[in-house]
Amino acid sequence: MQKIGLFGGSFNPLHCGHVAMARAFADELALDSVLFVPAGNPYHKAHADVGREHRWQMVQCVTELDARFAASDVDLVREGKTYTIDTVQIFKQIYPNAQWWWLMGMDSFMTLHTWKHWQALVRQVSIAVAARPGQSLRQLPAVLQDYAADALKAGSLHFLNAPEMAVSSTEIRRKIQAGADISGDVPSAVRQYILQHGLYRVVD
């Protein structure tokens, strides 16, 4: 059975921390592939979006970095708000025999109980969470603590000590606006794309 990890995010822009996390997930869970799924409408983000096409192209830049990496525009081609439960159901219909994992960071996991139909979601897909040092289940809301206790026993929830993201998309955008170098923050192909298209610069 093929094991596939779905890695969703706004990826605005996609950076080296995302790549390191994807590799850590793939290694620890023995995934056959990690599918980057850029959000079509990052409605929960307060910052301005550079546009679906630019985010899609930046995601495609990293698929050549690892043979296990691939990308899907399933959320980009859908109109309106895109919810994880709908995204997972689409993939399960296309590949019904695969074993699916949804990959996320601890910060996102701590808000899982606020996601649309989250209880149905965790019945349809296993959850993998990258936890940072010092984070524990005791920090979770009570409803998630109960879910986590049962899911860990069932093997449908996995925590791993992923490499800590030393940079964020927000910080990268600020550095670009300040004219600072981002060479060590994003893959070289992503950096070239950002510079080529003048993304994230302050417009007078």
UniProtKB/TrEMBL annotation:
NCBIfam families per UniProt: nicotinate (nicotinamide) nucleotide adenylyltransferase, PRK00071.1-3
Location of the Cytidyltransferase-like domain: 6-175
SUPFAM superfamilies from the entry? Nucleotidylyl transferase
- Pathway terms, separated by semicolons: Cofactor biosynthesis; NAD(+) biosynthesis; deamido-NAD(+) from nicotinate D-ribonucleotide: step 1/1
- Name of the molecule in the record: Probable nicotinate-nucleotide adenylyltransferase
Give a GO molecular function annotation for the protein: nicotinate-nucleotide adenylyltransferase activity
* The organism's place on the tree of life at top rank: Bacteria
Q: Which HAMAP family match?
A: NaMN_adenylyltr
The major lineage groups are:
Bacteria, Pseudomonadati, Pseudomonadota, Betaproteobacteria, Neisseriales
Q: What is its EC number?
A: 2.7.7.18
Q: Which organism is it from?
A: Kingella denitrificans ATCC 33394
Instruction: State the function annotated in the UniProt record.
Output: Catalyzes the reversible adenylation of nicotinate mononucleotide (NaMN) to nicotinic acid adenine dinucleotide (NaAD).
Protein family: Belongs to the NadD family.
Per the record, the GO terms for biological process are: NAD+ biosynthetic process
Enumerate the catalysed reactions: nicotinate beta-D-ribonucleotide + ATP + H(+) = deamido-NAD(+) + diphosphate
Q: Which gene encodes it?
A: nadD
What keywords sit in the KW lines?
ATP-binding, NAD, Nucleotide-binding, Nucleotidyltransferase, Pyridine nucleotide biosynthesis, Transferase
Q: Which CDD domains does the UniProt entry name for this protein?
A: NMNAT
Q: Which Pfam families match?
A: CTP_transf_like (PF01467)
